[in-house]
Amino acid sequence: MTFDDAAILAELDTLRAADAPTHGGRVLSYVYDSGMPQLDALAADAARRMQAVNGLDPTTFTSVAALERDVLAFARDILGGEAGTVTSGGTESCLLAVKTASDLWRAAGGAGVGRIVAPTTAHAAFRKAAELFDLRFDGVPVDPATGTVEAAQLIDRLGDDVALVVVSAPSYPFAAMDPIADVAAACAASGISCHVDACIGGWILPFWPQDLPAWDLRVPGVTSLSADLHKYGYAPKGVSVLLHSTRDRQRAQYFATTDWPGYPVVNPTLLGSKSAGALAAAWAIIKALGAEGFASLARTTSATTQALTAAIAGIEGLRVVGRPTGPLLAVATDEQAAPERRVDPHHWADAARAAGWMLQQQPGLTQADGIHLPPTTHLTVTPVTDAEALVAALVAAADAVRGVPPVDAAQVLGALPAQLPERLDADAAGVLLAGIGLGGEGGLPAQMAPFLALVEALPHQVVERLLVELLARTVES
Ligand SMILES: *Cc1c(COP(=O)(O)O)cnc(C)c1O
């Protein structure tokens, strides 16, 4: 059989050319560019060598065990813990942390619907875990000015029905470092599991040049920690680590069965058959960079983040949320400014996008106590972020939209019928999307601010259904 590989790859190249750029620092989320093409090439070569391997069985494919052993040894060196697992990403690490804690809680006599106690800012993966494992996510409100949570407010929620407490190092939405030592100590005193979600911080904070309060598995009471290699480990997507304080806790993560007529199944992760490509890429990157290489990239990223934070804080009409920790920050409207001098973060991000810089738009949120978190713009900084060029673009974008009021959600809602049905089927949801100019052929509109206003204004259940429809239609022909 012959095939035209050049033509097939040319078609792929055409598709890829329409993507947001994965290199060069123009996209301030999703992608983590080390700025070292040689490192990318090494990672790609390493992944390719594992293409045909099945990571399901490290006794048959012994290279998989060797690579995982090395990656975990390095991870434990910088993050602590007795044992761990390489997973397919942050979400899987978080899901497994919840599954493990929930199983241990039940084994210790926990009954009824267990709770996950976490600040409102904990990653959405923990709401997903609650849904999947029949737990209740109990979000503790954070301060809208700083995005931080009081340790006492989290500790107040502890009880026999708590399966797991989650704190972040730092939180994704606002880069807030949660009060890990105080919360973990209280958890330890009550025999409650405490997970540190360091998915974003885990591979850069150990090398961060500024002093930080202790936040990893060396903090007494922390029982597990997640850290994504496909973020500041600069690996291709599909690799993260989950570490546990003790080997016995890690064993509780496994699923094993001999109760079927096939091969005995022993899975540390959610997946069965799995790729070892991203694992090999991460392993090669760790070999190449070593601690010194990670530290050097962290220094660059830290300097850029500081410069960027100071410059954004100086833009009239905007404010940096709280005191961000690590290579990320969130930006909100400065309510101290006169209304005609304020900058709406969604208009600002739309203007920056028009100039070729992709910031991430985060809708406002009303917390369980009724206190509203403002809409913000999120920026994740990487070693390639060009602070000077970005600041120039951000200043120009702010100048372009200063004084433009936020989109009035009522106006956008006017495009929707007053009475929305309780359950939307695919056709009805499609009609609603079309009514607000979404879900058609053209992809997303250039201006996202109206859409974000809608996300804020509609009941979660309705907007979540519309988002499902929007995404489902992207892969339907
Ligand atoms: C990225 C991230 C996750 C989820 O990770 P994925 O790799 O996207 O599945 C969880 N928590 C935090 C803090 C993150 O930044």
TrEMBL record:
DNA repair found in the keyword field: no
Pfam families recorded: Pyridoxal_deC (PF00282)
GO molecular-function term, one example from the UniProt record: aromatic-L-amino-acid decarboxylase activity
A GO BP annotation: carboxylic acid metabolic process
Gene3D superfamilies: Aspartate Aminotransferase, domain 1 (3.90.1150.10), Type I PLP-dependent aspartate aminotransferase-like (Major domain) (3.40.640.10)
Chain positions with N6-(pyridoxal phosphate)lysine modification: 231
Cofactor: pyridoxal 5'-phosphate
Keywords: Aminotransferase, Lyase, Pyridoxal phosphate, Transferase
Family stated for the protein in its record: Belongs to the group II decarboxylase family. Sphingosine-1-phosphate lyase subfamily.
Protein name: Aspartate aminotransferase family protein
